[in-house]
What does this fold into?
Amino acid sequence: MASIVYKKSYKAPPIDKMEALRYAGVRGSDRMAEAILDECIDLSAMRLSYKLAYRILDKTELPKSVTESSTGAGFLGESRSAILVMASIGMELDRLIARYERISSPHALMLSALGSERVEALVDLFEEDISSEVGELGRRFSPGYGDIPLSAQTELFRLIEPHRYIGLSLSESLLMSPSKSVSAIIPIK
Amino acid sequence: MNIIKYMKDHLLFLDGGMGTLLQERGMKPGELPERRSLSHPEDVRAIHAAYFEAGSNLVNTNTFGANSLKYSEEELEEIIAASIACARDAAAGAEHRWVALDIGPTGRVLKPYGDLDFEDAVALYRRVASLGAAHGADLIYIETMTDLYELKAAMLGVKEACSLPFFASLAFGEDGRLMTGADPLAALALAEGMGASAVGVNCSLGPRALYPVLNKLTENASIPVLFKPNAGLPHMKDGRAVFDLSCEEFATEVEAAIAMGVSAVGGCCGTTPDYIRALYERLGECKPQRKEVRKQTVVASGRGSVAFAERPILIGERINPTGKRRFKEALLNNDISYILAEGIREEECGADILDVNVGLPGIDEPSMLKRVTEELQAVVDTPLELDTSSPEAMEAALRTYNGKALINSVNGKRESLDAILPLCKKYGGVLIALTLDEEGIPESAEGRLAIAERILAEAEKYGIGKEDIIFDPLALTVSADKNAARETLRAVRLIRERLGCHTSLGISNVSFGLPARDALNSTFFISALREGLSAAIVNPFSDALMGAYHAYLALLGMDENFRGYIAYSEAHQVSESEKNAIKPDTGATEAQSVGKSSDPATDRGKASVAGGCESELERAIVKGLRQDAARLTEEELKSLSPLDVVSERIVPALNSVGSAYEAGRVYLPGLLMSAEAAKAAFEVVSSAMPKGDGRGRMPIVIATVKGDIHDIGKNIVKVLCENYGFRVSDLGKDVCPEAILEEARRTSAPLVALSALMTTTVPAMEKTVSLIHKELPGVRVIVGGAVMTEEHAKMIGADAYSKDAMGAVRYAEWLEKELGM
It folds into this structure.
């Protein structure tokens, strides 16, 4: 099957502030942290993009390191195909975080937390969107979960080459850059 | 015929996609396409031949991803040789057919946001280009670049490998920017500055969606513009990938680009020989319609550009040790954070460009200027003016600089011209040319004009045009010569009128030795603007000067809707009210540096901690009030010694917040707010301390290990340790074991703190721990980070583990006591 890579951009999904605060280590009411979060939302608003690239693959086209791991097999279950998605909110946030690390570490921390919330929200939005086309989806999972080796990332990146579509790339030590990015497999039920 | 000459009178037809055509001929998904040049050369040749037959003049070889990251040295040469041979064979037998060595991005991100070193990238491209030249390519087509820094590495590699002409083509997004946020003008400035023969747009979108970007390029480019869009957007149809534009639709959309001034057309993803045939049939008779472009003076960062035009440009002067004790200390102690914070503040105050000068006796200037350039570019968006008298330092910084820099400076001395002009030619840049020579600075304006003319003539020999030279006719100290300022003002006008060149002045020089310097500086500045000054090196923190500047723009109709003036007046009011705010600590709000205020008094956890405080200063730190903490520290210093302020106020405050954090009553952002407030207090304390009497606690070396580029956790540990008075030497992220060992040795630190975020970098951590234990017995290593656990830490031989920053501080305190330091 000659499947192709699609590229999609979204408008900013609604922000779950509680979730962002949770990423920043806030586990209760903290008005000061909330105020910092609000500042960070303003600071980053014009600098985030919500882009992703995806591809629908037969189970057989997925790397063996995924399908033959017990975690991967568990997530995939009876699914015969899956969506491989790579999403990112862009490099600009990494610049902003670096900038605030120099002038205000609480803001750097909160920008990072906000970025984690943003990119997960982007993938949530994509799942909602794509399920109307391809039907019911299973839970998404990524290399590094359970016994799926992180090195599976290399193989997944080869299948999408997200650098060409959304500027996402993988370092030698398997870190994604931009840092606020997600690489995931979503089983199609 | 030479292709560059051919392009002057002919519309150049490029080729279309390669990947999908190879897939149609049996290439599997995930397979490396370049290998097809070896395994199926007949297929690759046939595709090139089909393009030439359809009308292409120039085809790109099947070498998009051919580089040493993907192939062994041996295979790389085979692939490049075979790929060029395929295209050559296909081109044979007809006129006006050329072969370009295709160079795509590496697919990796350059440091600091990725892990590919700039010099490694240059070497990689240098290798590919030299193979391309050796195997007979006519030119080099760098394409689909999404990061200007990588484009610079590629162009530099090509220039160092061969003398073939090169094209630079970029992939812009829907927002008209590159992935890294750069706009088309920044890309153009870089490509023109480095000497590209053409600049282009390819991939990402269909033709129509790229018109805005294309327009920006054709309206400003002094070199031809290339256009290789996709056949629209892809969708699936009957199990096949289909792009939404037909050949005819594609040709129609591309046709409109001819009138915009495009000089070469072709296609990218989804286009086939049929698309190129449709283009050729429709446009085969067209001539390029390049626009008349007035060459502009433009500098750029990796993100944006600054043009010297009507509005005078402000160049911030604060990154310079001259006369600044705190800055000198920062340089000597490797305290880059202080320098960067100054730069960020200048940008926030409205500087368009930042001057960077780190020259100080006892400093390795080339490596320091390079490092500060790299670190500044990671956090500010403005272009930089590299300011050094050392050609060696200039080259180190220019080479690593992302964009097209201002080069400060060259002058009329033979030695200076011979050293600096070649650097400008090689790396691109706009020169600041001082009107002085072996004889010194001519007293008269006419004398300075004469030197300017000589510099222009010399630059022309290198092919550096007058648009890339800004003259500085030198502001001399008026207290030494009462006519000095007047003559400089005359020189500004003369150079502007006679040579049509831009000018810049270092304003603050004029007032040395006199009181109330702000008044002299701002009046001199405005006078020079009236004489036609294009830019000035100024202190953006000077209220008088910035006020005069914004008023000038508003009065002369250069400030649309008074937007700049009103923004200035608002910022001005805030700073005035802050100055006057001598408020008792009533839990009132404080405007943070980032604008809006927060109301920490409602935070119950902190309120209860603050309630137990003995002094106003402690309360301010507990509540994270940065400005209050600094102000209250000044007051405490009237009655307490600096060390007592630290031990009786700041440390107890941090301890109480730390305990509240450990008990889960205060969260991480709150802990950091307090750390920032304590840092502000420490700045005040350390400036009150007699020199040499440091904060005196044990030194600690901290780093994120090799391979790991995320360092937010490490930075938290650093901030907190500093606030407890430890002398922290921060090596940053992705640091090799040897560098950590070296720093531990240099500082005699009894403690090394390491952070790792990824399971894949744990081996690097283990290596670092064992190296330090072997070479420096007795030095302890504490580790932490997302992947670390107590158990892991033991396994790799670390002396201690901490799950968070407070734990690291507690361990350091314990160790200090244990060692009796």
User: Anything to note?
Assistant: The first helix of chain B runs from residue 3 to 9. Chain B has four domains: 3-283, 297-531, 581-688, 699-818. The first strand of chain B starts at residue 12 and ends at 13. The two ends of chain B are 78 Å apart (CA to CA).
